[in-house]
Each structure stands twice: as C-alpha cells, then as structure tokens.
Amino acid sequence: MANALQQIMRQRLDRQGWSYGDVARRGGIPRSTVHHLATTDRLVRMPQPATLEGLSRGLELPLDTVRRAAAEACGIHLYPTAEDAPGTPPDPEVDLLIASVQRLSSDDRRHVAALVESLLERAPKEDPEEG
C-alpha cells in the first residue's frame, strides 16, 4: 500500500500527465529525489525543508499538504500548534519537534522537558504590549 506522500504524488502525476522530470524541473530539485520520494514505501527521515518546498512547487500543491504527507510517510504525526491560525504559516521545526518527542522514552522526554524549561527561563521575556 502506498504511503501518503506517494498517494498525493501519484494522483498529481496521473491527473496532470506529468513525469518525475517535469516535477523536478518545476520544483528545482533533482529528478532522482522526486523518483525516490514517489517510490519509497517508508521514508526513513523527513525530507529537508528545501526539498519539500521544491516538491510543493513542482507538484503545484500547498507546502503544508506536501509536508504533512511526508511526515506521515515517515511515521510522524504533525499536531497543529496554538500558533496555527489562519494566515499564519506553520513552523516545520515546531511540528517535527512535537512529533519526534513522542518517539522518545519517558526518561528522555523528561530530559527534553527540563532542557526546554531551562531555555525558556534564560530567554528574554517578551513585553505583551509589543507583541
């Protein structure tokens, strides 16, 4: 069974009559990358942001659609954040961090939580009147 990224790629290629090369040229990414993403059943890791952006351009699909399909193909579920308001572009780093934490052991999650708390405590406080 095809993964989510393969499904949207296949649908788009079939509907538009495009080849891997067509998508690669429009997206400014290598044809071999397009072929790999279209034919690999389970991605081992999330493609680089530039690759996802190129694939989005090449397939003429919203970046968020391509990014979420790629994450699902990697076995990562992306949760919407409080900042995902209409008109606000999602932050792929936040999505990837949130999704990746689930795969850690409970002990490792405690370490990550402590690190985040430490980083937040040393970060300069934002003035609510400015932001």
Describe the structure.
- The protein is an all-alpha fold and 131 residues long.
- The chain is 60% helix and 0% strand.
- The protein is built from seven helices and no strands.
- It has helices at residues 4-16, 20-27, 31-39, 49-59, 63-73, 92-101, 106-122.
- It starts with a helix and ends in a 9-residue tail after the last helix.
Shape: elongated
Strand-residue fraction?
under 5%
SSE order: HHHHHHH
Quickly count the helices. Answer: 7
What proportion of the residues is helical, as a percent range? Answer: 55-70%
Rg measurement, Å: 18 Å
First-last Cα distance = 47 Å
Total beta-strand segments: 0
Average pLDDT score: 81
Give a short overview.
By secondary structure, the chain is mainly alpha-helical. It contains 7 helices and no strands. Helix 1 (4-16) packs across helix 5 (63-73).
